[in-house]
């Protein structure tokens, strides 16, 4: 039990790494919280820093979730694979409420995707395809994120892994909750669309 708690703490710290903030400050002398949506996630990194650094931030945020989810495997703990989801969830919490950025983080889309990638790669691929298609059609990252999260929930049901379904349901609900301001802007026609795809 002590080891599981330790891994959850490590996962939270990994999730707390503010990729967009650090890359913006170190390489571009910009605090992305002062621009765009003010969010620390990958989407605002694309808007403020550009496509290439945005891709780097996205990959880093995904890897935070993936590495955190695989911590029980790395430490060779003899526990159920469902414990992988537990450490993954702590990375999502860390990303959304990072200790290194005054507990104001991103919306957890990329890090959640990283958790799914580690636990159920097939589900990650399916959700990613849906995200890309939605983004291509709508040009809204926020809308595409919510559609992908909801689709992941629906698809996960066919795995008959009810713990996975429960976790995905919680993640999807959290992602939608974090996007409430975006939903309001979409309704008002004020949500910015991407221009690079």
From TrEMBL:
<keyword id="KW-0812">Transmembrane</keyword>
<comment type="pathway">
    <text>Lipid metabolism; phospholipid metabolism.</text>
</comment>
<feature type="transmembrane region" description="Helical">
    <location>
        <begin position="49"/>
        <end position="75"/>
    </location>
</feature>
<keyword id="KW-0472">Membrane</keyword>
<keyword id="KW-0443">Lipid metabolism</keyword>
<dbReference type="InterPro" id="IPR003811">
    <property type="entry name" value="G3P_acylTferase_PlsY"/>
</dbReference>
<keyword id="KW-0012">Acyltransferase</keyword>
<comment type="function">
    <text>Catalyzes the transfer of an acyl group from acyl-phosphate (acyl-PO(4)) to glycerol-3-phosphate (G3P) to form lysophosphatidic acid (LPA). This enzyme utilizes acyl-phosphate as fatty acyl donor, but not acyl-CoA or acyl-ACP.</text>
</comment>
<keyword id="KW-0808">Transferase</keyword>
<keyword id="KW-0594">Phospholipid biosynthesis</keyword>
<feature type="transmembrane region" description="Helical">
    <location>
        <begin position="147"/>
        <end position="177"/>
    </location>
</feature>
<protein>
    <recommendedName>
        <fullName>Glycerol-3-phosphate acyltransferase</fullName>
        <ecNumber>2.3.1.275</ecNumber>
    </recommendedName>
</protein>
<comment type="subunit">
    <text>Probably interacts with PlsX.</text>
</comment>
<keyword id="KW-1003">Cell membrane</keyword>
<feature type="transmembrane region" description="Helical">
    <location>
        <begin position="113"/>
        <end position="135"/>
    </location>
</feature>
<keyword id="KW-1208">Phospholipid metabolism</keyword>
<dbReference type="GO" id="GO:0043772">
    <property type="term" value="F:acyl-phosphate glycerol-3-phosphate acyltransferase activity"/>
</dbReference>
<comment type="similarity">
    <text>Belongs to the PlsY family.</text>
</comment>
<dbReference type="GO" id="GO:0008654">
    <property type="term" value="P:phospholipid biosynthetic process"/>
</dbReference>
<keyword id="KW-0444">Lipid biosynthesis</keyword>
<feature type="transmembrane region" description="Helical">
    <location>
        <begin position="81"/>
        <end position="101"/>
    </location>
</feature>
<keyword id="KW-1133">Transmembrane helix</keyword>
<feature type="transmembrane region" description="Helical">
    <location>
        <begin position="6"/>
        <end position="28"/>
    </location>
</feature>
<dbReference type="GO" id="GO:0005886">
    <property type="term" value="C:plasma membrane"/>
</dbReference>
<dbReference type="Pfam" id="PF02660">
    <property type="entry name" value="G3P_acyltransf"/>
</dbReference>
